[in-house]
Amino acid sequence: MDDLFSEVTRQSLRDGAPLAARMRPRTLDEFVGQHDVVGPGTVLRTAIENDALSSLILYGPAGCGKTSLARIIAGVTRSHFVELSAVSSGVKDVRASIDAARERLGLSEQRTIVFIDEIHRFNRSQQDALLHAVEERLIVLIGATTENPFFEVNAPLISRSRVVELHPLDDEDIRRIVTMAIEDRERGLPGSHTVDPEALERIVLTSGGDARSALTTLELAASVSSAGGDGRSAITVEAVAEATRTRALTYDKTGDTHYDVISAFIKSMRGSDPNAAVYWLARMVHGGEEPKFIARRMLIFASEDIGLADSQALLVAHAAVKAAEFIGWPECRINLAHAAIYLALAPKSNAVYRAIDDALLEVREGSMRAVPDHLRDRHRPGADSYPDYKYPHDHPGGRVVQQYLPDGLENRLFFTPEGSSSDDE
User: Fold this and answer.
1) Segments of the chain assigned to CATH 1.10.8.60
2) Predicted structure pTM score
3) Of the CATH numbers 3.40.1280.10, 3.40.50.300, 1.20.272.10, 3.30.1830.10, which one belongs to the domain with range 256-345?
Protein backbone atom coordinates (compact mmCIF):
# COMPACT_ATOMS: atom_id res chain seq x y z
CA MET A 1 0.00 0.00 0.00
CA ASP A 2 2.85 2.35 0.88
CA ASP A 3 4.44 1.59 -2.48
CA LEU A 4 1.15 2.34 -4.24
CA PHE A 5 0.79 5.70 -2.52
CA SER A 6 4.46 6.48 -3.09
CA GLU A 7 4.07 5.81 -6.81
CA VAL A 8 0.93 7.99 -6.95
CA THR A 9 2.84 10.78 -5.19
CA ARG A 10 5.78 10.48 -7.59
CA GLN A 11 3.42 10.54 -10.58
CA SER A 12 1.68 13.65 -9.22
CA LEU A 13 5.03 15.35 -8.73
CA ARG A 14 6.05 14.45 -12.28
CA ASP A 15 2.79 15.75 -13.73
CA GLY A 16 3.05 19.00 -11.79
CA ALA A 17 6.75 19.52 -12.44
CA PRO A 18 7.90 22.48 -14.57
CA LEU A 19 8.28 21.81 -18.27
CA ALA A 20 12.08 22.07 -18.00
CA ALA A 21 12.09 19.25 -15.41
CA ARG A 22 9.69 17.04 -17.38
CA MET A 23 11.75 17.40 -20.56
CA ARG A 24 15.05 16.33 -19.04
CA PRO A 25 16.71 13.86 -21.43
CA ARG A 26 16.54 10.25 -20.28
CA THR A 27 19.22 8.75 -22.51
CA LEU A 28 22.41 9.86 -24.20
CA ASP A 29 20.58 9.77 -27.54
CA GLU A 30 18.03 12.30 -26.20
CA PHE A 31 20.78 14.56 -24.83
CA VAL A 32 21.05 17.64 -27.06
CA GLY A 33 24.35 19.45 -27.62
CA GLN A 34 27.87 18.86 -26.24
CA HIS A 35 28.70 16.51 -29.16
CA ASP A 36 32.42 16.94 -28.55
CA VAL A 37 31.96 15.70 -24.97
CA VAL A 38 29.34 12.93 -25.13
CA GLY A 39 28.80 12.41 -28.87
CA PRO A 40 29.14 8.92 -30.38
CA GLY A 41 32.67 7.60 -30.11
CA THR A 42 33.87 10.08 -27.47
CA VAL A 43 35.90 8.81 -24.53
CA LEU A 44 33.34 9.95 -21.95
CA ARG A 45 30.39 8.37 -23.75
CA THR A 46 32.25 5.09 -24.12
CA ALA A 47 33.12 5.12 -20.40
CA ILE A 48 29.47 5.78 -19.49
CA GLU A 49 28.12 3.05 -21.77
CA ASN A 50 30.68 0.55 -20.46
CA ASP A 51 30.05 1.53 -16.83
CA ALA A 52 33.74 2.34 -16.48
CA LEU A 53 33.39 5.92 -15.33
CA SER A 54 35.97 7.70 -13.17
CA SER A 55 35.20 10.76 -11.04
CA LEU A 56 34.13 13.85 -12.99
CA ILE A 57 33.79 17.59 -12.44
CA LEU A 58 31.21 18.95 -14.92
CA TYR A 59 31.91 22.64 -15.48
CA GLY A 60 29.73 24.97 -17.50
CA PRO A 61 27.08 27.71 -17.47
CA ALA A 62 23.51 27.28 -16.25
CA GLY A 63 21.21 25.32 -18.52
CA CYS A 64 23.91 23.52 -20.53
CA GLY A 65 23.03 20.01 -19.28
CA LYS A 66 25.24 19.26 -16.25
CA THR A 67 22.50 17.84 -14.01
CA SER A 68 20.78 16.09 -16.93
CA LEU A 69 24.02 14.36 -17.88
CA ALA A 70 24.57 13.21 -14.30
CA ARG A 71 21.06 11.71 -14.17
CA ILE A 72 21.56 10.00 -17.54
CA ILE A 73 24.75 8.45 -16.17
CA ALA A 74 22.71 7.17 -13.23
CA GLY A 75 20.26 5.52 -15.62
CA VAL A 76 22.87 4.03 -17.94
CA THR A 77 25.35 2.67 -15.39
CA ARG A 78 24.73 -0.17 -13.00
CA SER A 79 25.89 1.93 -10.05
CA HIS A 80 23.77 3.12 -7.17
CA PHE A 81 23.11 6.86 -7.56
CA VAL A 82 23.13 9.36 -4.68
CA GLU A 83 22.33 13.02 -5.31
CA LEU A 84 23.44 15.77 -2.92
CA SER A 85 23.30 19.54 -3.16
CA ALA A 86 26.19 21.58 -1.80
CA VAL A 87 23.64 24.23 -0.81
CA SER A 88 21.80 22.00 1.66
CA SER A 89 24.27 19.19 2.44
CA GLY A 90 27.29 19.15 4.74
CA VAL A 91 30.13 16.91 5.84
CA LYS A 92 27.71 14.70 7.81
CA ASP A 93 25.72 13.93 4.65
CA VAL A 94 28.89 13.27 2.65
CA ARG A 95 30.24 10.86 5.26
CA ALA A 96 26.89 9.08 5.52
CA SER A 97 26.88 8.56 1.74
CA ILE A 98 30.46 7.23 1.85
CA ASP A 99 29.64 4.84 4.71
CA ALA A 100 26.60 3.56 2.82
CA ALA A 101 28.71 3.15 -0.33
CA ARG A 102 31.27 1.08 1.61
CA GLU A 103 28.55 -1.17 3.00
CA ARG A 104 26.89 -1.51 -0.42
CA LEU A 105 30.19 -2.45 -2.06
CA GLY A 106 30.83 -5.09 0.60
CA LEU A 107 27.36 -6.65 0.48
CA SER A 108 26.54 -6.54 -3.23
CA GLU A 109 29.73 -5.34 -4.94
CA GLN A 110 27.71 -2.46 -6.40
CA ARG A 111 29.55 0.83 -6.90
CA THR A 112 28.07 4.18 -5.88
CA ILE A 113 27.95 7.40 -7.88
CA VAL A 114 27.65 10.50 -5.69
CA PHE A 115 26.43 13.54 -7.61
CA ILE A 116 27.05 16.89 -5.88
CA ASP A 117 25.37 19.86 -7.50
CA GLU A 118 27.08 23.25 -7.11
CA ILE A 119 30.16 21.58 -5.64
CA HIS A 120 31.97 24.95 -5.64
CA ARG A 121 29.79 25.91 -2.66
CA PHE A 122 31.48 23.25 -0.52
CA ASN A 123 34.25 24.75 1.59
CA ARG A 124 37.72 23.19 1.76
CA SER A 125 37.00 20.90 4.71
CA GLN A 126 33.80 19.63 3.07
CA GLN A 127 35.68 18.88 -0.15
CA ASP A 128 38.47 17.19 1.84
CA ALA A 129 35.91 14.76 3.26
CA LEU A 130 35.58 13.31 -0.25
CA LEU A 131 39.28 12.80 -0.98
CA HIS A 132 39.97 9.30 0.39
CA ALA A 133 36.73 7.84 -0.93
CA VAL A 134 37.44 9.22 -4.40
CA GLU A 135 41.10 8.14 -4.34
CA GLU A 136 40.18 4.58 -3.26
CA ARG A 137 37.34 4.57 -5.85
CA LEU A 138 34.95 3.71 -3.06
CA ILE A 139 32.67 6.22 -4.79
CA VAL A 140 32.60 7.81 -8.22
CA LEU A 141 32.14 11.52 -7.71
CA ILE A 142 30.29 13.67 -10.23
CA GLY A 143 30.47 17.32 -9.26
CA ALA A 144 28.64 20.07 -11.14
CA THR A 145 29.72 23.70 -11.03
CA THR A 146 29.23 26.96 -12.88
CA GLU A 147 32.54 28.24 -11.51
CA ASN A 148 36.01 27.45 -12.81
CA PRO A 149 36.91 24.32 -10.80
CA PHE A 150 40.63 25.08 -10.97
CA PHE A 151 39.88 28.07 -8.71
CA GLU A 152 36.94 26.78 -6.67
CA VAL A 153 37.70 23.07 -6.12
CA ASN A 154 40.59 21.68 -4.04
CA ALA A 155 43.64 20.81 -6.14
CA PRO A 156 43.85 17.28 -4.61
CA LEU A 157 40.22 16.63 -5.61
CA ILE A 158 40.85 18.03 -9.11
CA SER A 159 43.87 15.73 -9.52
CA ARG A 160 41.69 12.71 -8.70
CA SER A 161 38.95 13.69 -11.15
CA ARG A 162 38.51 14.51 -14.81
CA VAL A 163 37.33 18.06 -15.51
CA VAL A 164 34.79 18.14 -18.35
CA GLU A 165 33.87 21.59 -19.68
CA LEU A 166 30.39 22.01 -21.14
CA HIS A 167 29.50 24.99 -23.32
CA PRO A 168 26.35 27.10 -23.76
CA LEU A 169 23.97 25.47 -26.21
CA ASP A 170 23.90 27.03 -29.66
CA ASP A 171 20.76 28.34 -31.34
CA GLU A 172 20.09 25.12 -33.24
CA ASP A 173 20.30 23.09 -30.01
CA ILE A 174 17.80 25.40 -28.28
CA ARG A 175 15.50 25.31 -31.32
CA ARG A 176 15.53 21.51 -31.25
CA ILE A 177 14.82 21.32 -27.52
CA VAL A 178 11.87 23.72 -27.78
CA THR A 179 10.45 21.79 -30.76
CA MET A 180 10.72 18.52 -28.83
CA ALA A 181 8.78 20.06 -25.93
CA ILE A 182 5.99 21.12 -28.29
CA GLU A 183 5.75 17.76 -30.03
CA ASP A 184 6.16 15.45 -27.02
CA ARG A 185 2.59 14.64 -25.92
CA GLU A 186 3.74 12.65 -22.90
CA ARG A 187 6.14 15.08 -21.23
CA GLY A 188 5.84 18.31 -23.21
CA LEU A 189 3.26 21.07 -23.23
CA PRO A 190 -0.15 20.00 -21.96
CA GLY A 191 -2.82 20.37 -24.63
CA SER A 192 -2.28 21.17 -28.26
CA HIS A 193 0.00 24.07 -29.12
CA THR A 194 1.67 25.50 -32.16
CA VAL A 195 4.46 28.07 -32.19
CA ASP A 196 4.73 30.84 -34.74
CA PRO A 197 8.16 30.88 -36.43
CA GLU A 198 8.83 34.40 -35.12
CA ALA A 199 7.91 33.28 -31.60
CA LEU A 200 10.28 30.32 -31.81
CA GLU A 201 13.15 32.58 -32.87
CA ARG A 202 12.35 34.99 -30.03
CA ILE A 203 12.57 32.12 -27.53
CA VAL A 204 15.91 31.06 -29.00
CA LEU A 205 17.22 34.63 -28.87
CA THR A 206 16.17 35.32 -25.29
CA SER A 207 17.47 32.00 -23.93
CA GLY A 208 21.15 32.97 -24.10
CA GLY A 209 22.11 29.31 -24.67
CA ASP A 210 20.22 28.18 -21.53
CA ALA A 211 17.84 25.27 -22.23
CA ARG A 212 16.08 25.69 -18.88
CA SER A 213 15.42 29.35 -19.63
CA ALA A 214 14.06 28.51 -23.10
CA LEU A 215 11.65 25.88 -21.77
CA THR A 216 10.49 28.17 -18.96
CA THR A 217 9.77 30.91 -21.49
CA LEU A 218 7.87 28.44 -23.69
CA GLU A 219 5.78 27.27 -20.74
CA LEU A 220 4.92 30.81 -19.64
CA ALA A 221 4.07 31.85 -23.20
CA ALA A 222 1.81 28.81 -23.58
CA SER A 223 -0.04 29.72 -20.39
CA VAL A 224 -1.06 33.12 -21.80
CA SER A 225 -1.97 31.84 -25.27
CA SER A 226 -5.63 31.43 -26.21
CA ALA A 227 -7.07 28.50 -28.11
CA GLY A 228 -8.30 29.15 -31.65
CA GLY A 229 -11.37 27.79 -33.42
CA ASP A 230 -9.63 24.46 -34.07
CA GLY A 231 -8.87 24.04 -30.39
CA ARG A 232 -5.13 24.58 -30.90
CA SER A 233 -3.34 27.35 -29.04
CA ALA A 234 -0.94 29.38 -31.14
CA ILE A 235 2.04 30.75 -29.22
CA THR A 236 2.74 34.13 -30.76
CA VAL A 237 5.73 36.43 -30.58
CA GLU A 238 3.58 38.74 -28.42
CA ALA A 239 3.02 35.92 -25.92
CA VAL A 240 6.75 35.25 -25.79
CA ALA A 241 7.45 38.95 -25.31
CA GLU A 242 4.97 38.95 -22.42
CA ALA A 243 6.69 35.93 -20.88
CA THR A 244 10.17 37.44 -21.00
CA ARG A 245 10.93 41.07 -21.57
CA THR A 246 14.74 40.90 -21.41
CA ARG A 247 17.28 38.58 -22.90
CA ALA A 248 18.81 36.22 -20.34
CA LEU A 249 22.45 36.87 -21.12
CA THR A 250 24.82 34.90 -18.94
CA TYR A 251 26.82 37.19 -16.65
CA ASP A 252 28.28 36.27 -13.29
CA LYS A 253 30.00 39.17 -11.55
CA THR A 254 32.36 36.82 -9.70
CA GLY A 255 32.83 34.00 -12.18
CA ASP A 256 34.50 33.27 -15.49
CA THR A 257 32.08 35.36 -17.54
CA HIS A 258 33.10 38.40 -15.51
CA TYR A 259 36.73 37.92 -16.54
CA ASP A 260 35.93 36.90 -20.12
CA VAL A 261 33.78 39.96 -20.81
CA ILE A 262 36.17 42.48 -19.25
CA SER A 263 38.96 40.83 -21.25
CA ALA A 264 36.96 41.25 -24.47
CA PHE A 265 36.25 44.89 -23.50
CA ILE A 266 39.93 45.70 -22.96
CA LYS A 267 41.04 43.90 -26.11
CA SER A 268 38.41 45.69 -28.19
CA MET A 269 39.68 49.09 -27.00
CA ARG A 270 43.26 47.96 -27.60
CA GLY A 271 42.22 46.95 -31.11
CA SER A 272 40.70 50.42 -31.68
CA ASP A 273 37.17 49.06 -32.24
CA PRO A 274 34.70 51.45 -30.55
CA ASN A 275 31.66 49.39 -31.60
CA ALA A 276 32.93 46.23 -29.92
CA ALA A 277 34.04 48.23 -26.87
CA VAL A 278 30.53 49.66 -26.43
CA TYR A 279 28.95 46.23 -26.93
CA TRP A 280 31.06 44.59 -24.20
CA LEU A 281 30.48 47.59 -21.97
CA ALA A 282 26.73 47.12 -22.49
CA ARG A 283 27.06 43.45 -21.49
CA MET A 284 28.62 44.54 -18.21
CA VAL A 285 26.05 47.29 -17.65
CA HIS A 286 23.21 44.85 -18.34
CA GLY A 287 24.76 42.31 -15.96
CA GLY A 288 24.99 44.84 -13.13
CA GLU A 289 28.80 44.94 -13.03
CA GLU A 290 30.29 47.31 -10.46
CA PRO A 291 30.81 50.61 -12.41
CA LYS A 292 33.94 51.50 -10.44
CA PHE A 293 35.51 48.21 -11.51
CA ILE A 294 34.95 49.07 -15.20
CA ALA A 295 36.28 52.60 -14.71
CA ARG A 296 39.38 51.40 -12.86
CA ARG A 297 40.22 49.03 -15.70
CA MET A 298 39.92 51.89 -18.17
CA LEU A 299 42.22 54.01 -16.00
CA ILE A 300 44.85 51.26 -16.16
CA PHE A 301 44.31 50.89 -19.90
CA ALA A 302 44.86 54.62 -20.49
CA SER A 303 48.50 54.36 -19.36
CA GLU A 304 49.17 50.75 -20.30
CA ASP A 305 47.94 50.83 -23.90
CA ILE A 306 47.78 54.52 -24.84
CA GLY A 307 50.32 56.23 -22.61
CA LEU A 308 52.23 59.09 -24.20
CA ALA A 309 50.56 58.55 -27.56
CA ASP A 310 47.71 60.61 -26.05
CA SER A 311 48.23 61.70 -22.47
CA GLN A 312 44.75 63.23 -22.47
CA ALA A 313 43.40 59.66 -22.32
CA LEU A 314 44.54 59.33 -18.71
CA LEU A 315 42.52 62.42 -17.78
CA VAL A 316 39.43 61.11 -19.58
CA ALA A 317 39.72 57.76 -17.82
CA HIS A 318 40.22 59.46 -14.46
CA ALA A 319 37.09 61.51 -15.08
CA ALA A 320 35.22 58.25 -15.72
CA VAL A 321 36.42 56.91 -12.37
CA LYS A 322 35.14 60.00 -10.58
CA ALA A 323 31.83 59.80 -12.47
CA ALA A 324 31.41 56.16 -11.45
CA GLU A 325 32.06 57.07 -7.81
CA PHE A 326 29.90 60.19 -7.78
CA ILE A 327 26.99 59.26 -10.06
CA GLY A 328 26.63 55.47 -10.18
CA TRP A 329 24.11 53.48 -12.20
CA PRO A 330 22.27 54.08 -14.44
CA GLU A 331 23.48 57.54 -15.50
CA CYS A 332 27.21 56.80 -15.34
CA ARG A 333 26.80 54.33 -18.21
CA ILE A 334 26.99 57.39 -20.48
CA ASN A 335 30.23 58.58 -18.87
CA LEU A 336 31.73 55.11 -19.17
CA ALA A 337 30.69 54.87 -22.82
CA HIS A 338 32.22 58.33 -23.45
CA ALA A 339 35.53 57.17 -22.00
CA ALA A 340 35.45 53.74 -23.69
CA ILE A 341 34.90 55.26 -27.15
CA TYR A 342 37.63 57.86 -26.57
CA LEU A 343 40.11 55.19 -25.45
CA ALA A 344 39.24 52.94 -28.39
CA LEU A 345 39.78 55.75 -30.90
CA ALA A 346 42.98 57.09 -29.30
CA PRO A 347 46.41 56.28 -30.79
CA LYS A 348 48.12 53.41 -28.99
CA SER A 349 51.54 53.00 -27.36
CA ASN A 350 52.65 50.64 -24.63
CA ALA A 351 56.02 52.39 -24.21
CA VAL A 352 55.23 53.54 -20.65
CA TYR A 353 54.14 50.05 -19.63
CA ARG A 354 57.28 48.47 -21.09
CA ALA A 355 59.53 51.14 -19.55
CA ILE A 356 58.44 50.57 -15.96
CA ASP A 357 58.39 46.77 -16.30
CA ASP A 358 61.85 46.69 -17.91
CA ALA A 359 63.17 48.92 -15.13
CA LEU A 360 61.58 46.68 -12.48
CA LEU A 361 63.16 43.62 -14.07
CA GLU A 362 66.57 45.30 -13.90
CA VAL A 363 66.03 46.28 -10.25
CA ARG A 364 64.91 42.74 -9.28
CA GLU A 365 67.49 40.74 -11.22
CA GLY A 366 70.35 43.14 -11.94
CA SER A 367 73.29 44.09 -9.74
CA MET A 368 72.81 46.35 -6.76
CA ARG A 369 73.95 49.75 -8.04
CA ALA A 370 74.85 52.81 -6.00
CA VAL A 371 73.45 56.28 -6.64
CA PRO A 372 76.11 58.33 -8.52
CA ASP A 373 77.84 60.73 -6.11
CA HIS A 374 76.77 63.88 -7.97
CA LEU A 375 73.08 62.85 -7.64
CA ARG A 376 73.19 62.10 -3.91
CA ASP A 377 71.59 64.28 -1.24
CA ARG A 378 73.85 67.26 -0.61
CA HIS A 379 72.50 68.08 2.85
CA ARG A 380 74.19 65.22 4.67
CA PRO A 381 77.57 65.61 6.44
CA GLY A 382 80.53 65.17 4.06
CA ALA A 383 78.47 66.08 0.98
CA ASP A 384 80.97 68.84 0.15
CA SER A 385 83.30 66.16 -1.18
CA TYR A 386 80.73 65.04 -3.80
CA PRO A 387 81.35 66.05 -7.44
CA ASP A 388 79.34 69.04 -8.56
CA TYR A 389 75.79 68.41 -9.71
CA LYS A 390 74.92 70.36 -12.85
CA TYR A 391 71.67 72.23 -12.22
CA PRO A 392 69.70 72.00 -15.54
CA HIS A 393 68.05 75.43 -15.09
CA ASP A 394 71.46 77.09 -15.21
CA HIS A 395 71.90 75.88 -18.78
CA PRO A 396 70.25 76.87 -22.10
CA GLY A 397 66.91 75.21 -22.61
CA GLY A 398 66.92 73.85 -19.08
CA ARG A 399 68.83 70.76 -20.16
CA VAL A 400 72.36 69.55 -19.45
CA VAL A 401 74.17 66.34 -20.34
CA GLN A 402 75.36 64.36 -17.31
CA GLN A 403 75.08 60.80 -16.04
CA TYR A 404 71.75 60.06 -14.37
CA LEU A 405 71.72 56.25 -14.43
CA PRO A 406 73.99 54.24 -12.09
CA ASP A 407 77.42 53.08 -13.21
CA GLY A 408 77.09 50.12 -15.55
CA LEU A 409 73.76 51.29 -16.93
CA GLU A 410 74.92 54.52 -18.55
CA ASN A 411 73.60 53.59 -22.00
CA ARG A 412 70.62 51.47 -20.96
CA LEU A 413 67.28 52.41 -22.62
CA PHE A 414 64.16 51.61 -20.65
CA PHE A 415 61.87 54.02 -22.49
CA THR A 416 61.62 53.89 -26.26
CA PRO A 417 58.91 56.23 -27.58
CA GLU A 418 57.54 54.13 -30.45
CA GLY A 419 54.00 55.17 -31.12
CA SER A 420 54.12 58.18 -28.81
CA SER A 421 52.91 61.57 -30.00
CA SER A 422 56.50 62.83 -30.15
CA ASP A 423 57.27 60.19 -32.76
CA ASP A 424 54.21 60.99 -34.83
CA GLU A 425 54.95 64.70 -35.08
Assistant:
1) 171-243
2) 0.58
3) 1.20.272.10
Whether domain 34-165 has CATH 3.90.226.10 = no
The total of other beta-carbon atoms located within 10 Å of residue 371's CB is 10
Q: How far apart are CA 122 and CA 57, in angstroms?
A: 13
First to last CA, the chain: 92
Around Cβ 148, how many Cβ atoms within 10 Å? Answer: 15
Residue bearing the bigger pLDDT, 125 or 343: 343
Per-residue model confidence as pLDDT tens digits over 360-393: 888 888 888 888 888 887 766 665 666 788 888 8
Task: Say which CATH architecture domain 171-243 belongs to.
Answer: Orthogonal Bundle (1.10)
| Mean pLDDT for the stretch of residues 199-211 | 85
* Amino acid at position 207, single letter: S
> pLDDT over 90 for what percent of the chain?
22
| Greatest Cα-to-Cα distance within the chain, rounded to the nearest angstrom | 107
CATH 1.20.272.10 in the chain, residue ranges: 256-345
Least confident of 99-103, 218-222, 231-235, 252-256: 252-256
Q: What is the mean pLDDT of residues 37-56?
A: 88
